[in-house]
Amino acid sequence: MRQAVIGAVLLAVGAVCVAFGLLPLPELAALAARVLPVLGFVLGLTIVSELAADAGVFDRLADVAARVGGGRTIGLWGAVVVLAVLCTVFLSIDTTAVLLTPIVITLARRVGLPPMPFALTTVWLANTASLLLPVSNLTNLLAVDKIGLDGPLPFAGLMVWAALAGVVVPCAVLLVVFRRSLFGRYTPVGLRKASDPVFFWAASAVLVALVVALTAGVEVWVAAVAAAVLLVVVAAFRAPSELRPSRVPWSTLVFAAGLFVVVETLHATGVTDPIVHALGGGTGSGSLLLLGGAGAVAANAIDNLPAYLVLEPAAGHEALRYAALLVGVNAGCLITPWASLATLLWHARLTAEGIHLSWGRYIALGCIVAPLTVVAGVFALAI
């Protein structure tokens, strides 16, 4: 609700800016053409992910991970890492943080293991593993057209080594921090049966088709909205009680729309020009590290989405500079609670599951992992 209120205020401020000519109508039209497909993707993917979770798809994946672990805690943790990475890469950061977290916590409790290492794994990887594909993070979707890459595979080619660093570094830190908890044994559990097999298999098929479409280069909003419509039709027959207005991410859409308008106004009026000039240009290691570091600092100060929007002009027209900025705002937003909306949603899920993690401890761990991940990710871009 708070996010929706902030978004409504931002939209009102944006409307005033347009009315007074601070944001010219042609620039507003260009902004709408850019961001409406992005918001359409967010809408479609959120509905698909929520309904797939209701159908038991993520529960089944977690049970498979428990079997793959083979009774060894480190094996289970490794399977959860793979699951979190794949979920983040193909279904976005929020899906991992919001939907996968409670499932992983339940899985850990079912096999008698402490849930915290697994819960922290999901939120860190939800953020840092979101570098590989445009659909992995909203910031990537905004950047891909600016970079001028034709489709998800060229984008992945640019980001692959940084994305790998975004997985390896947090996992290494987790292994050190939770070394006593991650080495041991557990009793594997059986696969739970879906309450409605038809709904389960239909949701599974839609998810697979959506992943294929997104990686094949289909317009992301078209693929996501089509998948959402198809799954809504299935749910209307198999699980009508799950079709609620709350499935639509109203607060996220309103917040993002208002944010886009206000930041575009700041760019149009030149307010952000001093920041852009201060970050300079060039694609040397020092310049890229400066931009990535600025992205990380801004993300932890004001949230990663507005941080990207404010600093985007500093990337100029260089693909490597866009990549460095994405490393900063995506992989660097692990310190403050508000640095990523996904982190706040994740913590709310933790509280709902009866797990306490103080923000003080989260910030302390973030101060270790965030700088290491950003530095490794930026230097990986030069490979």
What does this structure look like?
The chain has helices at 2-19, 25-54, 57-68, 73-91, 93-110, 116-128, 138-147, 152-177, 197-215, 220-238, 250-268, 273-278, 285-302, 304-311, 319-331, 341-352, 359-380. With 383 residues, it is mainly α. It has one domain (2-380). It is globular, with a radius of gyration of 20 Å. The termini are far apart. It is a multi-pass membrane protein. Belongs to the CitM (TC 2.A.11) transporter family. Belongs to the ArsB family. Keywords: Arsenical resistance, Cell membrane, Membrane, Transmembrane, Transmembrane helix, Transport. It holds the Pfam family CitMHS. This is ArsB/NhaD family transporter.
